């Protein structure tokens, strides 16, 4: 079943006198429960595509459908609501709110959703255990390593069981061992929770985990292929 | 659409406040000192105006006065009143009445062997005068009038100096009887009083009421009935009670109309206190805006992250406003404690005898008693909270307007 449908997405940026085509007539279907990597060099349009699908950025033209509902024209409030209930994010850095503990960061989205304290506590404890951070619930981000911080961000992204998790270079600041552990975790969560993952990366090791690899260049999809994941 | 619960927002705001504790402490100190300045200066100004009004109305005018109609235009013996009848006496028993007196008050000429001056001769019942506010401690030599029949004269310290006479000497007081004949009599000076205003010492002389009535051939009639209450700011109810019981042909007026200059000064001082409060706040507001702007600029990525996670722009706005509110409340708490702690030890008064003449120009005495008025306290707190939040709207609005993607990618 198609979870996300993108039709003819265009997004240009002006840099001085030069117009950069970040998305150049991109069309894409994403199946529910899939584990997809967007790859390509810097400036190829991976992040712009993620931002467009997540409603963080406005498109110049094109249409984005989420479970059959057109979402690219939603206002700020409804778009925030869509992200709150259906989309999880994992960014490269600055993922966590520094004044909140690991558990509070994980609970943040559920708090905004209005989930009861008891339910929040139960879910956040379970997911932190699942991502291997049991016993670190009360640590602030500054007391966690980079890998642990990314695990908290992943826990937060999936704790409220979104339909889609968008991850932008989630391993960029991690050493190779930690990166591999994180990717193992994402793959496991994808299989365990049937959450759709769309991961932007230019790390070849990350791409090996994908069932489907989409290559981008100059704002265009140049290859879209299924592969055997590691 | 849902937003972050207030308790969670409060926790987040509180922790954000202490991220840069040095900046927060400096801002808190600025707010506390500002609030202290607002309240402390208001207390001094309120003390001065309170004393001005009290000096002006307590001893002679009272809070409410009854006259014969026309007395204010022609304060002569022909515009006199009958002494209070049973109905008025009943009203004067009301708990709102702190004291009352009836007196004769006529323009007169006083002559010593060296000089003469125009004065106001007051024929008084000493018990009533004391009840409405005459302070026996103000008698600096001799004694006060002993009874309504007392034939002695009590003069002000300044008048004694002007007349170049002394306690125990005789003076002649001259006025007019109802038939416009000269009524004069020799009085012995039995007492000298002081007042906070030199003008009062120079203008008013006291003698026994019956004695003055007899001199002026006015029977038992009086010029005015002065009534005091418990709070000079709230006389409306007292005024209504006295008006309802006053005889026909009389005029009952509050001190605000009798002493319109004083009342105007009071209103002006209220306005001045408000302006002072706002000026101090304006100085504070620059620091507040700067603090919040810095707090917002430092957290642009975090604000973007919260928006990406589904927090609405309005929630971001409330979050920044809540941080500002917490900062303001803490500053207010410290400022109020500081102000109260510095005003309470000064309850016994601040000696300003070095600038007594200047103070007298304002109608105040040489000791200033700061008055911690709840209304002023509320004004200072309200101004800081309301204008503080209004001022914080700019950085809060700024924060809520970030586009998530711009905020997240901000370097």
Q: In summary, what is this structure?
A:
Chain A has 230 residues and is α/β, with parallel strands linked by helices. Chain A has helices at 46-53, 76-86, 102-113, 117-130, 146-159, 176-193, 204-207, and strands at residues 2-15, 18-31, 35-39, 61-66, 69-70, 87-90, 164-168, 196-201, 212-217, 220-226.
Write up this protein:
The complex is a heterodimer of chains A (230) and B (411). Helices cover 35% and strands 30% of the residues of chain A. In chain A, helix 3 crosses helix 4, helix 3 packs parallel to helix 5 and helix 4 (117-130) packs across helix 5. Chain A has helices spanning 46-53, 76-86, 102-113, 117-130, 146-159, 176-193, 204-207; strands spanning 2-15, 18-31, 35-39, 61-66, 69-70, 87-90, 164-168, 196-201, 212-217, 220-226. Chain A is built from seven helices and ten strands. With 230 residues, chain A is of the alpha/beta class. Chain B has 15 helices and twelve strands. In chain B, the strands form two sheets. In chain B, strands 1, 2, 3, 4, 5, 6, 7, 8, 9 and 10 form a ten-stranded mixed sheet that branches. In chain B, strands 11-12 form a two-stranded antiparallel ribbon. In chain B, strand 2 (99-111) and strand 3 form a beta hairpin. In chain B, helix 10 runs parallel beside helix 14 (374-400). The model of chain B has no long low-confidence stretch (mean pLDDT 88). The chains are: A alpha/beta (230), B alpha+beta (411).
How does the SSE layout of this entry go?
The complex is a heterodimer of chains A (230) and B (411).
Chain A: E1 2-15, E2 18-31, E3 35-39, H1 46-53, E4 61-66, E5 69-70, H2 76-86, E6 87-90, H3 102-113, H4 117-130, H5 146-159, E7 164-168, H6 176-193, E8 196-201, H7 204-207, E9 212-217, E10 220-226
Parallel strand pairs in A: 3-8, 3-9, 6-7, 7-8
Antiparallel strand pairs in A: 1-2, 1-4, 4-5, 9-10
Helix pairs in contact in A: 3-4, 3-5, 4-5, 5-6
Chain B: H1 6-17, H2 21-57, E1 64-68, H3 86-91, E2 99-111, E3 116-124, H4 126-132, E4 139-142, E5 153-156, H5 157-163, E6 170-176, E7 182-193, H6 198-203, E8 204-208, H7 209-216, E9 224-228, H8 236-245, E10 250-254, H9 255-258, H10 260-298, H11 300-308, H12 313-343, E11 350-351, H13 356-361, E12 367-368, H14 374-400, H15 404-408
Parallel strand pairs in B: 3-8, 5-7
Antiparallel strand pairs in B: 1-9, 1-10, 2-3, 2-6, 2-9, 4-7, 6-7, 11-12
Helix pairs in contact in B: 1-12, 2-10, 2-12, 2-14, 10-14, 12-14
């Amino acid at each position: 079943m198609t979870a996300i449908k993108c039709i003819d997405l265009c997004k240009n940026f002006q840099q001085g006198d030069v117009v950069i085509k970040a998305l150049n007539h991109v069309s894409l279907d994403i199946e529910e429960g899939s584990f997809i990597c967007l790859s390509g060099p810097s400036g190829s349009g991976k992040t712009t595509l993620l931002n467009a699908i997540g409603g963080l950025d406005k498109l110049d033209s094109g249409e984005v459908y989420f479970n059959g509902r057109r979402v690219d024209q939603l206002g700020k409030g409804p778009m925030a609501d869509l992200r709150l209930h259906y989309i999880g994010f994992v960014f490269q850095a600055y993922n966590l709110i520094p004044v909140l503990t690991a558990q509070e960061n994980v609970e943040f989205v559920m708090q905004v959703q209005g989930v009861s304290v008891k339910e929040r506590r139960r879910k956040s404890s379970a997911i932190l255990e699942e991502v291997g951070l049991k016993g670190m619930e009360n640590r602030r981000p500054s007391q966690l390593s980079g890998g642990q911080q990314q695990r908290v961000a992943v826990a937060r992204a999936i704790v409220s069981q979104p339909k889609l998790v968008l991850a932008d270079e989630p391993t960029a600041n991690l050493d190779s061992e930690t990166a591999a552990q994180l990717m193992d975790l994402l793959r496991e969560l994808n299989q365990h929770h049937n959450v759709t993952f769309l991961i932007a990366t230019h790390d070849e090791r990350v791409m090996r985990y994908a069932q489907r690899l989409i290559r981008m260049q100059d704002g265009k999809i140049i290859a879209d292929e299924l592969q055997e994941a590691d | 659409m849902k937003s972050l619960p207030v308790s969670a927002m409060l926790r987040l705001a509180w922790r954000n406040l202490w991220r840069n504790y040095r900046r927060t402490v400096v801002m808190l100190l600025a707010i506390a000192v500002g609030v202290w300045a607002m309240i402390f200066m208001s207390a001094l100004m309120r003390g001065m105006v309170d004393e001005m009004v009290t000096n002006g109305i307590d001893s002679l005018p009272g809070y409410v006065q009854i006259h014969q109609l026309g007395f204010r235009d022609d304060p002569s013996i022909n515009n006199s009143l009958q002494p209070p009848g049973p109905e008025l006496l009943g009203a004067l028993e009301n708990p709102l009445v702190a004291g009352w007196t009836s007196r004769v008050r006529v323009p007169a000429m006083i002559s010593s062997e060296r000089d003469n001056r125009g004065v106001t001769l007051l024929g008084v019942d000493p018990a009533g005068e004391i009840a409405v506010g005459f302070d026996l401690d103000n008698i600096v030599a001799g004694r006060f009038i002993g009874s309504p029949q007392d034939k002695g004269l009590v003069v002000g310290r300044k008048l004694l100096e002007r007349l170049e006479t002394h306690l125990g000497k005789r003076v002649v007081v001259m006025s007019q009887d109802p038939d416009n004949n000269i009524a004069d009599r020799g009085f012995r000076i039995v007492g000298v009083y002081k007042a906070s205003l030199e003008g009062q010492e120079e203008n008013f002389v006291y003698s026994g009421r019956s004695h003055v009535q007899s001199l002026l051939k006015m029977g038992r009639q009086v010029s005015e009935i002065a009534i005091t209450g418990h709070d000079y700011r709230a006389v409306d109810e007292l005024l209504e009670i006295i008006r309802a019981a006053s005889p026909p042909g009389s005029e009952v007026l509050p001190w605000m109309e009798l002493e319109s200059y004083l009342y105007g000064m009071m209103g002006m001082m209220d306005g001045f206190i408000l302006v002072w409060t706002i000026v101090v706040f304006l100085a504070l507001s620059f620091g507040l805006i700067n603090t919040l702007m810095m707090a917002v600029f430092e957290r642009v990525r975090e604000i973007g992250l919260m928006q990406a996670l589904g927090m609405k722009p309005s929630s971001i706005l409330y979050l920044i406003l809540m941080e500002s509110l917490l900062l303001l409340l803490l500053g207010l708490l410290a400022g109020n404690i500081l102000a109260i702690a510095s005003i309470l030890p000064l309850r016994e008064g601040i000696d300003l005898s070095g600038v007594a003449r200047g103070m007298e120009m304002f109608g105040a005495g040489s000791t200033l008693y700061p008055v911690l008025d709840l209304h002023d306290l509320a004004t200072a707190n309200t101004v800081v909270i309301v204008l503080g939040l209004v001022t914080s709207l700019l950085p809060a609005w700024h924060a809520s307007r970030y586009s998530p993607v711009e905020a997240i990618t901000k370097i």
